[in-house]
Specification:
Order of helices and strands: HEEEEEEEEHHEHHHHHHHHH
Helix content: 40-55%
Number of helices: 12
Radius of gyration: 23 Å
Shape: elongated
Number of strands: 9
Oligomer: single chain
Mean pLDDT: 84
Structural class: alpha+beta
Strand content: 15-25%
Low-confidence stretches: 1-7
Length: 283
């Protein structure tokens, strides 16, 4: 009775499947069915039963049970069920959803030197356990958007800690290569930029194109991201008692300490001195 009541509550909740880009779906296909996926999103296919054939203009690949297949944005693959097939599908709508939760620096170092070829990943025990947890909710018709979001984060934690950088680089290459190079470009130049316009110029883009690429990659505007980096940087410097507050104000482009005070009150809930004292008390 308790389970039924809980499901009734979920059905009435405004967050139960209201997101049209629902992340995880379970699908079944008959033999010879053509599997059509939206080209406007990326997809990871978790094959739970049967075999599928994935083909491009050059070659076809047979993918079997317990394998994961990545289908990138604007893919040119044709996917056919060779047998009766059951699969879990993860849809992701921005590259940011992928790279934010894997160690991009580690993967990027590997990715720069590899020659890409179509690659699948095997579902090890941690990934199988994760998939079972998602299927449990889907089989009980629990489609809560918040749950979907949390599971979309959790899966990339599994990728990060249970797969090697070489495996991740080969698997995620179709959706990460261009964006990781953009990520590196932004992180290399943002400390030299005071405005979004300056950062765009340092990265070699006009402002309009840069904003679109940035939002697609990071999931937020460049201004919001730069503010986040500034807040994190100031907080880290305030933890270091060897750096004077005056020097921190200068380093982060404030004309004087009073402007830094105002900034810290707004974003860190206290003056620089108060934040530093609180840190000392916690130590």
């Amino acid at each position: 009775m308790k389970i039924k009541n809980a499901l009734d509550d979920c059905a009435c909740c405004s967050s139960n499947g209201s997101n049209i880009h629902r992340r995880f779906v379970k699908r079944e296909f008959k033999q010879e069915d053509k599997i059509l996926l939206s080209p406007d999103a990326g997809h990871i296919l978790f094959i739970l039963e049967g075999e599928v054939q994935v083909g491009d203009t050059k070659k076809t690949h047979v993918c079997a049970v317990n394998q994961m297949v990545l289908i990138g944005y604007h893919h040119e693959y044709q996917i056919t069920a060779l047998t009766k097939v059951t699969m879990l599908i993860l849809n992701f709508t921005t590259h940011y959803h992928v790279c934010v939760n894997i160690n991009t620096e580690r993967v990027w170092r590997t990715m720069k030197s590899l020659t890409y070829k179509f690659n699948t990943l095997r579902m090890g025990t941690p990934m199988q356990d994760f998939v079972k947890s998602v299927l449990f909710y889907l089989d009980h018709q629990i489609y809560c958007d918040y749950l979907q979001e949390s599971k979309a984060v959790e899966i990339f934690i599994v990728f990060r800690f249970f797969y090697t950088s070489d495996e991740l680089a080969h698997f995620f290459y179709p959706v990460l290569y261009k964006d990781l190079s953009f990520d590196t470009l932004v992180r290399t130049n943002y400390l030299q930029a005071k405005t979004v316009q300056e950062l765009a110029e340092l990265c070699g883009y006009n402002l309009s194109t840069f904003k679109k690429l940035f939002a697609k990659h990071f999931g937020i505007s460049p201004y919001q991201w730069m503010q986040q980096q500034k807040i994190s940087g100031i907080k880290a410097k305030l933890m270091d008692k060897t750096v004077s507050i005056k020097n921190i104000a200068y380093e982060f482009g404030f004309v004087d300490q009073s402007r830094l005070n105002t900034f810290c009150k707004k974003y860190l809930n206290g003056t620089p001195l108060q934040i530093r004292k609180k840190s000392e008390e916690q130590d």
